[in-house]
Design brief:
1 helix, 19 strands
Length: about 180
């Protein structure tokens, strides 16, 4: 069972149809929408500010979602995939975004709709990522414009896939419970 902790009178709130890995950690002022999945060793720490997560968001293995005390909450839109080992901190991520594996998104960034942050990219503090763009590198820079329809489809497909993957684990848990 996931580690879910209250802190300073705040407790995580979850939307319908969630899946939480048994070793995920969710703390404090965190709220998620419907169809969210939080994977193995992911940490979502709303201890110093709020973290708001939309619908159909997947936070993959070892990802860290945090915020900055009194300065930067974290807001994540709908249909967002946050890749393995990513660090999303005190920023706003709009709808239909893919945050690549091992990337870092720092305080006060705004990641525009239908955008991709490439694996390993470092999006520096206060960066505004244009909608329909791929940002890559250290520090991250815009490397390509994306076709809005194609990128929305591909990003939403990833979000849908993670809902499907979670259903496999739920089925397995149900099988184990009936033994």
């Amino acid at each position: 069972m996931a580690l879910i902790l209250n802190i300073k009178g705040k407790s995580p709130k979850f939307g319908e149809r969630k899946w939480l890995a048994p070793n995920a950690t969710i703390v404090g002022d965190v709220s998620t929408g419907t169809d969210c999945t939080i994977w193995f060793n992911a940490v979502i720490r709303g201890d110093v500010n709020s973290i708001t997560i939309g619908n159909k968001v997947n936070i993959q293995d070892n990802a860290v979602i945090h915020c900055t005390y009194l300065k930067a909450a974290t807001v994540i839109g709908n249909n967002v995939s946050i890749g393995h080992n990513a660090n999303v901190h005190g920023c706003t991520v709009k709808d239909n975004v893919l945050i690549g594996m091992g990337s870092i998104v720092m305080d006060h960034c705004v990641i525009g709709e239908n955008s991709v942050i490439a694996a390993g990219a470092v999006v520096l503090e206060n960066t505004i990522v244009e909608p329909n763009s791929i940002y890559a590198g250290v520090p991250a820079k815009r490397v390509k414009e994306l076709d809005p329809e194609k990128s929305a489809f591909l990003i939403e497909r990833t979000a849908n896939n993670y809902v499907k993957y979670a259903s496999w684990y739920e089925e397995e848990e149900q099988r184990e419970a009936t033994k």
